Amino acid sequence: MSFSQTRWVWRNGEIIRWEDANTHVSVHALHYGSGVFEGIRCYETVNGPAVFRLDAHLDRLYQSADVYGIEIPYSQSTLTEAVCEIIQVNEFKSCYVRPLCYYGSSSLGLNPALCPVEVVILTWPWAAYLGAEGLEKGVRVTVSPWLKFHSKMIPTTAKACGQYLNSVLAVRDAVRRGFDEALLLDAEGNIAEGSGENLFLVRDNKLLTNDEQHSILLGVTRDAVLRIADDLGYETKVRALTLDDLLGAEEAFFTGTAAEVTPVREVDNQVIGVGRRGPVTARIQEAFFAATAGRDERYRDWLHVVEHPVVVV
Length: 313
Ligand SMILES: Cc1ncc(COP(=O)(O)O)c(C=O)c1O
Prior knowledge:
nine-stranded mixed sheet, binds pyridoxal-5'-phosphate
């Protein structure tokens, strides 16, 4: 991953140069993680660059902001246009999009009421998050010694900056021990999710996944996969997932904007199913990438086409 191709950043209604997109060390969010954000992908499609499920991501951004009392000083339609504009000016055909709304500089008391709300949108090219090989062959995960925080501590359905320290601890531990990704359990010992992904299992040609009762972020990709699975004729059961369910599954895969649909081939060195991408995962992955590329009419309304290049001088 590299920021070297990004020339422009959207900040508080203006397009500014990457090198000017700095912030002061006194901003509230830097000290306390008091911001909310989204992770979105723009894909190259038959109709040019298009943002996948932009409405759903921005809906979640405003919901996350509501949880923390962050009043985003722009309408959703303004941010929709801003996302398209910043992709255009950077001349990306495909990229990752990161809107971030955070409390700025005024006071460092914990109550951020006096702090202004700053809004930025970053874009950069980001290849497969868990690697191209991971997408094809599957990834090796470990059960994290860190539990996913309970939604009564911090609402897990909001995507807020500070809560990602839990994921940072988990993923650092996993990588240090030689795994690709961490899987976090919830406070009851059921599976919650990956450090940045939701989990699906496949058993008897049916899908299993959990929901917000197990302290997960309700992923936009999870939602897309639920619909795709239904369209492919797979039944999905939404319920608690145990480690036994995972170890006994025929297939398992992660879903997420960054990770897309990534097979899980091992958990703590125990092979899942046949130890590589299974047939159901492959069909779902294929249908997912057909949707993101605009090759399937049924999912065209998931794509927000980025139109007309804009030139900034
Ligand atoms: C903790 C966590 N769970 C799940 C997901 C998947 O969500 P989405 O599919 O909306 O990207 C993400 C990614 O944003 C995440 O950070």
